[in-house]
Design a protein that fits this description.
The mean pLDDT is about 95. By secondary structure, the chain is α/β, with parallel strands linked by helices. The chain is built from eight helices and eight strands. The protein starts with a strand and ends with a helix. It has a single domain, classed as TIM Barrel (Alpha-Beta Barrel), CATH 3.20.20.
Length: about 220
């Protein structure tokens, strides 16, 4: 099975966002990853509803919205209305994680939970059957272009074991520092979705780079 490639527009050229989205539409990427940061849960601010609405206007791919924000339940309906097809919240930001998952699913959107590098996968034991997606952060959240954390491989394997033990069809997504060098081992470990930002948008030929990730042998 070939991986789902989800380029992160955090690394895109925002002065030419329409052309960037149209480029992704023509590529082999299935998803477009949208990192929303509030400057509170993470030490950076990215973008909110107007940008998502603009992306949604031009995109023909699944919009994969990653909420790196505090108390995400306040805004889930608004993100759905702005065009999100997948909404992922952080376990560390959710006082009532099960409630937030149900909130997302009740809107007819796929629900994901993200884990920071220090967070053990055991926090998902009681909700794994409810999830469409587990997002493993392979860098500390907040900034693009960071170095990949090697412990991610072990964490992906543990997550895969948890999913299989529950008889779930939950996908595993990796976000942070993904490139041609680590993609094969991530897929061998059990990953299904690869987020790539700087690796795609900083390359001379983003469409070719996306294709190369899609064709990784593992």
């Amino acid at each position: 099975m070939k991986p789902i490639i989800a380029p992160s527009i955090l690394a895109a050229d925002f002065a030419n966002i329409q052309s960037e989205i149209e480029m992704l539409n023509q590529s082999q990427a299935e998803w477009i990853h949208i990192d929303v940061m509030d400057g509170l849960f993470v030490p950076n601010i990215s973008f909110g509803f107007p940008i998502l609405e603009a992306v949604h206007k031009h995109a023909t791919k699944t919009l994969d919205v990653h909420l790196m924000i505090a108390d995400p339940g306040r805004y889930i309906t608004q993100f759905k209305n702005a065009g999100a097809d997948v909404i992922t919240v952080h376990a560390e930001a959710c006082t009532h994680m099960h409630r937030n998952i149900q909130q997302i699913k009740d809107l007819g959107v796929k629900a994901g939970v993200a884990l920071n590098p220090h967070t053990p996968i055991q926090v998902l034991e009681n909700v794994i059957e409810e999830l469409d997606l587990v997002l493993i952060m392979s860098v500390n959240p907040g900034f693009g272009g960071q170095k990949f954390i090697q412990n991610t491989y072990r964490k992906v394997k543990e997550t895969k074991q948890l999913i299989e033990a529950a008889g779930s069809k939950t996908l595993i997504e990796i976000d942070g520092g993904v490139n041609q060098e680590n993609a094969a081992m991530l897929l061998q470990s059990g990953a299904d979705v690869l987020v790539a930002g700087s690796f795609v948008f900083s390359s001379p030929d983003p469409i070719k780079t996306i294709s190369s990730l899609k064709e990784v042998v593992y």
